[in-house]
Amino acid sequence: MKQKIFMYLFVFSILLVLFQYVNSKRVFEQMDHKLDGYKGQLERYKDSVAVMQDEILDVSHFNLERNEDAITYFENRGYKVSELIPLIKDELYKLNEVKGQHPIIPYASGEGRRMMINTVKLLNHKWIIADFSDGQYWGELFLKYELTEDNQLKFNLVESFLYPLN
């Protein structure tokens, strides 16, 4: 009797070990499959990041903050570029506060509206592009700017256009 109990226990133990082996093998294969999927996603994300970095480099090519020659131009004249860039943008935005017709935007605004400069991008030590709108009409400007000897900013409109209404 004792021998049969041990034999049943032994068979039961073997069945239990076999069940755990099969179950853990299945879990391991599922985890391995998930890991392969994550590795594939990681490769796609790395490729996407590389593409985005290339696009950022392309977009930031015409940018004062990345243009060493333009930065050197201002530094040789004694300006701190980190303080100068916000100053130039602020001076351009201050022109939005002028009463009546905007001093730079050559287009009249719609009824009860004002043309205002929305976005400004400094291309280098001489040029700016900006967009403007009155809420209904919008367009873009190409400006030339210079810092005079008495540290005054002068903006000159080079080119502008107004998008047609659809």
**Beta fraction:** 15-25%
Count of DSSP E strands? 4
**What is the radius of gyration?**
34 Å
Helix percent band: 40-55%
Instruction: Briefly note the structural class of the backbone.
Output: alpha+beta
Secondary-structure element string: HHHEEEE
Number of domains: 2
User: What's the N-to-C terminus distance?
Assistant: 96 Å
Total of helices: 3
Instruction: Report the average pLDDT across residues.
Output: 90
- How are the strands of the biggest sheet laid out side by side? 1-2-3-4
Major sheet: 4 strands, antiparallel
Low-confidence regions? none
Shape: elongated
Features of the shown structure:
elongated, 4-stranded antiparallel beta sheet, 4 strands, 49% helix, 166 residues, alpha+beta
